[in-house]
Amino acid sequence: MIKPDEKLRKLTAVLDSGKKESIIDVVRSLKKEEPPVGAIALLVAFYDASYDKVLQKTIESFFNDIKHKTARKEIIAEIKKPWKSNTISMLISSCWQSGLDYSEYLADIATIYLKADYVTAIECMTVIEESAGRSDRKTKDDIIKLIMESSSAHTHEKSPLTSELIGILQK
Prior knowledge:
By secondary structure, the chain is mostly helical. Helix content is 70%, strand content 0%. The chain contains 10 helices and no strands. The protein has helices spanning 4-17, 20-30, 39-49, 53-64, 71-79, 85-97, 106-115, 118-132, 137-148, 159-170. The longest helix is centred in the last third of the chain and has 15 residues, at 118-132.
């Protein structure tokens, strides 16, 4: 059995090598088991810096297929970092595509919604809609208050989305 530190070192070495086929193979192998702590951060950083669409799609697929609840905390931590908007959007999209429950992170997702561009805001709204049913009334009310008090939620572009999001949270 390979130790998590060894797996992380191997992932780092493969990503640093730049060898496309090796990168694809190592990312696909990560799907088979719980990724070691730190792997998500490495993949996000690589994705953010990459312009190779095949490698980006491979990494997107990895994130969309994550089924390990332990990965949620790391994904949320990465979403909060100042990555490119397409990277943040991909990560937010993976939250709902993975099918994992992000209800305990609704406030984080709502905060990202407020800062995000339109496309990412739609992804945030989808995550919130998917997870709101598993959240308590107080949490939803707190998020509604957060959104209502933010001027960025009421921009011309986001105003219709914000109205719909509040409706989702009021249920």
